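Office hours follow-up: a student asked to see two folded examples consecutively, so here they are.
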Amino acid sequence: MQTSELQWTAQEQSIAKAAFGKAYKREIEALVQVVRDQASSLSSTDDIWRLHDFLSARRHELDGKYDERESALIFVFADLVKEGWLSLDDLQGLDASKLSKISALTRMM
């Protein structure tokens, strides 16, 4: 079965939403810390614009990364697990075949 054909139960949709929220919160908290660190060492206009460019790039990356379409969930979760924002434990309750696909993709990506 292709990932675009996977069916998500209401319970799995709830688990997916909670996992998205958890990963996003973790990533934003890490970003806030980086921004605090960088902001504390600003000493020139060039430093300000570098921080601005960094934030613009991160916003673009985050907007693209957190794709909640059901057809993309398996891949998004695999990315988030691989990057360390989620663990497979955060996805417990999903169908075993979905967890297996996510786990396999983390090793391939």
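And the second, which I mentioned at the end of office hours:
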Amino acid sequence: MDYDLVVTGGRVIDPSQEIDRVTDVAFAQGRVAAVGDGLAAHGAQVVEAAGRIVTPGLIDLHTHVYWGGTSLGVDAVALARSAGVSTLVDTGSAGPGNFPGFRSHVIDASPVRIIAYLNISFAGIFGFSSRIMVGESGDQRLMAPHDTLEVLDANRDVIAGVKVRVGRTASGTAGVVPLDIARQVADEADVPMMVHIDQPPPTLEEVLARLRPGDILTHCFRPFPNAPIRRDGRVLDAVLDARARGVLFDIGHGMGSFDFIVARGMLAAGFLPDTISSDVHALCIDGPAFDLPTTMSKFLCLGVSLPEVIRRATVNAAAALQRPDLGSFRPGSEGDASILELANGRFDYRDVLGAELIGEQRLLARGLVLAGELWHSADQAA
């Protein structure tokens, strides 16, 4: 069989199939065609990846890419290129009132796949900058269950579920009210929720009590208060109970939601996140989050193995999205691949509180295959 593109000689890590070996990945007609040895001889285009890591296209499950339509949005194309990410999941930048613009001007126009969680607030995240911070969930007049349901039903091809942000910054004193409204929409539409939490009110326990199997708690390794672990190293019972019933836990690093102390405690307790995501936006793209590979690198330096880190940005993220066609090199899957370099050296990482971690490894994006074509190569760009 002839292939349109073959990535050859790289260390292929595909946790969906428990593959971790040096081999080739072939693409045809925009999809994965085969994984195996000796495929390069049958490729119309061959990309040499010796010494590099080849993974199913990375999925950043928490980003903000409504550039130009919201103050926190970053450019999706530039981010995908620099981070080597094939799927960017925008989590609530747009609500039903401005989603049509997001779809027309950003999602449909982008060569990179963008999937969205629709904000329960009519205006989405509208007041988020270094000078102005207005939580969109704090004004209950903006809660828009009817509009959210209508827009979601009309855009199910690109909307994965409902986003709601609660906490003192995001919802003021509204407590769990925005979450209860979002859950009604999610129940009616039969879709998952992604739920942001910052400082109380509400408490983490109150939020977790309302989450269903398949719902996602993002910012799951956030600092105190509303941290998932106590100072004595005991993971909260509410966190363990939620995982046992199928709630998913996502990192969502961002500018305020990832603490090295909490992360070390959770990992020591054997509690790994289900997904690793950057929550990259305009206020953290220059640090401390930067991008998905940087966030993944922090977990490497905290002792999580490379295959397990990749699992949380590929097949696990695809499962959270209910998109089994993503995050895998199974034949017939979407033809996406990320080509990475694992650099060794001395690297300075920071959490959201300014704490420092000196690590010996760093993942760097070196190429991206989209729909079976080499879309970007750092080698060619150089």
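Two things to take away from it. The chain has two domains: 3-55+332-342+360-381, 57-321. The longest helix spans residues 177-189.
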